[in-house]
Design a protein that fits this description.
Layout (H helix, E strand, L loop, with lengths): L1 E5 L3 H11 L13 E5 L10 E10 L2 H7 L15 E2 L4 E8 L11 E4 L15 H5 L32 E5 L3 E3 L6 H4 L2 H12 L8 E5 L3 H12 L5 E6 L2 H9 L4 E4 L6 H9 L2 E3 L7 E3 L2 E6 L4 H9 L1 E9 L12 H5 L3 E4 L5 E4 L2 E4 H11 L8 E5 L4 H9 L1 H4 L3 E4 L2
Helix pairs in contact: 5-6, 5-11
Length: 407
């Protein structure tokens, strides 16, 4: 079968880094770390696994970070090369291991991609997995499969940017008829947003600022609204088409980063904050939002998240940042901010019980409390991967939100 794989090829890495500054297409061209190649279908690692035929797989912001070589080398021990990219997976089960009782060939499913203790074959879970914090598993380099934080970074499992992959039965969630395939391909980014919101929800009457109106930003907004959290939500958007979407998804106020009006003054006014002028550099903001979700992962967006959080406020970092070099961390100590990172999904308290974040996302989509299908704006076949990546990366021109593959 054909697959889009990432290879840790140092000469190609250095070439892409050097040329990609001038010609971004070099990051997914013939001399890049990306390959469109023939590979063998992955085999079941044990009889607790299933094989899946992919129907849809999304292009995640973390995939673009990988392709454009923005990832920190500190993540490389948690991957095994070459690996097939893709973790936002909707599919049909084609083969079931002998030790799997609750799944059948033909089931329509989504895959929670985290490769934690249970999927790696450990009978005694680590401390993190005992708590239900599967994304913080301490054994992501050991067990029945090669290193990998998740499917889409492990050479043994395959990934969604191909026609078939394998997954442990514990990673599989069946899809109810009420959840369409297009909504299902949005479950991973929605669950990522839910994880950040649900572990410490904004309190009634608080003001929330979402920095970034891409897929994750809108999923954070949708998470807040679908969970009936009574908060005022302000969104800082980069593009006008994104501003239109966040209004449709229930934002109370939207500020355009590229507005003709100075966005510092406009956003500060909406948040009831003061703008102070330093000797040089960006304006200093006194006051701001109670809770901020940073959903971009760039120097400017992180700076804005810190600047526009009021004293004793909370900052949640969802954007996939690697090594930010021009971030002023002064607001953290000056305003005694609480800053938290957020990675992928886990388990959440929902309706009085602990549930996997994916299950919460499915329930909210099934009930109609959330509907994210309109965020899927572009579809490509796998052999069109270069056009798909260019579309996903060039949002200003393409007006892309979620770009997906149809293998």
């Amino acid at each position: 079968m054909k697959a889009i794989q990432f290879e840790a090829n140092i000469p190609h890495y250095l070439f892409s880094k050097a040329i990609g500054r001038f010609f971004p297409s070099a990051f997914f061209g013939p001399m890049s770390c990306l390959s469109w190649r023939d590979v063998e279908e992955p085999a079941l690692p044990t009889q607790e696994w299933v094989k899946i035929r992919v129907k849809y797989c999304g292009i995640c912001g973390s995939d673009l970070n990988l392709i454009f070589l923005h990832d920190s080398p500190s993540t490389s021990p948690f991957a095994s090369f070459p690996f097939t990219i893709g973790h936002e997976i909707v599919g049909i089960i084609e083969e079931v291991g002998r030790d799997v009782a609750h799944l059948s060939v033909g089931d329509r499913i989504v895959v929670d991609p985290i490769l934690s203790c249970q999927s790696r074959g450990f009978r005694e879970p680590c401390v993190s997995c005992q708590r239900g914090d599967f994304s913080l598993c301490e054994r992501m380099t050991a067990g029945d499969v090669s290193p990998g934080l998740l499917i889409g970074s492990c050479r043994d499992t395959g990934g969604g940017w191909s026609s078939r992959l394998v997954a442990h039965h514990s990673q599989i969630l069946k899809l109810p008829a009420e959840v369409s395939d297009v909504n299902a391909v949005m479950i991973d980014p929605f669950a990522t947003a839910l994880h950040s919101v649900m572990r410490d929800p904004p309190r009634k009457g608080e003001t929330v600022l979402i920095v970034g109106a891409g897929v994750i930003g809108i999923c954070v907004l949708t998470a807040i609204r679908s969970l009936d959290i009574d908060a005022r939500v302000v969104v800082l958007a980069k593009h006008p088409f994104q501003a239109e979407l966040v209004r449709r998804y229930g934002a109370d106020e939207v500020v355009l980063l590229r507005s003709t009006v100075d966005y510092d003054q406009q956003l500060a006014g909406i948040l009831g904050a003061k703008v102070l002028k330093p000797l040089f550099g960006s304006p200093v903001i006194q006051g701001g939002a109670d809770v901020v979700y940073e959903c971009v992962g760039k120097d400017q967006s992180i700076n804005d998240a810190l600047r526009f959080t009021k004293s004793k406020g909370k900052v949640n970092l969802l954007g996939v940042a690697s090594i930010p070099r021009k971030v002023d961390w002064t607001p953290i100590w000056l305003n005694e901010l609480e800053v938290k990172g957020s990675f992928s999904v886990s388990t959440e308290e929902y309706k009085g019980e602990r549930h996997r974040t994916y299950a919460v996302a499915i329930d909210l989509l099934k009930s109609g409390k959330a509907d994210l299908a309109s965020l899927v704006t572009h579809r490509f076949t796998l052999d069109q991967y270069r056009a798909a990546i260019a579309t996903a990366a060039g949002k200003r021109k393409s007006r892309a939100m979620k770009v997906i593959f149809e293998p």
